[in-house]
Design a protein that fits this description.
6 helices, alpha/beta, two-stranded parallel sheet, 214 residues, Rossmann fold, 2 domains, six-stranded mixed β-sheet
């Protein structure tokens, strides 16, 4: 049975945690939540407590006690909207370390990908499961799904809710065949990236709704 660490926040992270916790192939060993947890979504910490799954109170993967052990290895780390850059020393401790990113990579690396896709009047968006590398969202692609968005009437909230459904589908279709998948290198010529510093340019797409962004 493969041991799993789950990093992240919110309702999708909880659904994925439940899947690992009920799986006969994986053992959910540890939760690393985003701290502070956002109040607008379900609490991963509360789920961890209810299901007696150990979690890191600081929300920082650097505080995993076993990190100091040179021989410490973990079979799979899965990130769902985790908020910290993972350093190379920890990546090397993982047989596989994957991230679910709310965009069709290599487009929209970085923060607020849904906000930027709507700001840029895209007609499609997507979800990607990719390997975590020392860079930002530039690791090899495991699987992807694309879906329609509608900038003329979609709010960020609408697309985010839609993305949770597509993300759950992609996870369910990917993890059972994970060991068979050959990861694909991202096409750097198609890459776009937005940082927190860029967020001031989002205008009425800076929040969940245009009204909240005013």
């Amino acid at each position: 049975m493969k041991e799993v660490i789950l990093m992240g926040k919110g309702s999708l992270a909880i659904k994925i945690a439940k899947w690992f916790n009920q799986s006969s192939d994986y053992k959910l060993k540890l939760i690393i939540p985003v701290i502070p947890e956002p109040s607008w979504t379900d609490s991963l910490i509360s789920w961890s407590k209810q299901n007696n799954i150990e979690y890191i109170k600081s929300g920082n993967y650097l505080d995993i006690p076993e990190n100091n052990n040179e021989n410490y290895k973990i079979d799979l780390v899965f990130s769902v909207f985790y908020d910290k850059i993972i350093k190379d020393f920890f990546i090397k401790k993982c047989d596989k370390i994957l991230n679910l990113h709310n965009a069709y990579l290599p487009k929209y690396r970085g923060v607020s990908p849904i906000n930027w896709a709507l700001k840029n009047n895209e007609n499609t968006h997507g979800i990607t499961i990719h390997e975590i590398s020392p860079g930002i969202d530039d690791g090899r692609i495991i699987s992807q799904i694309s879906y329609s968005i509608y900038p003329d009437f979609d709010e960020v909230r609408d697309v985010y809710i839609r993305s949770l459904e597509y993300g759950w589908t992609l996870f369910n279709q990917t993890i059972p065949i994970l060991d068979k998948i050959i990861p694909k290198i991202q096409d750097e010529s198609q890459a776009t990236y937005y940082s927190l510093k860029d967020s001031e340019k989002l205008g009425n797409r800076s929040n969940f709704t245009k009204q909240q962004s005013e």
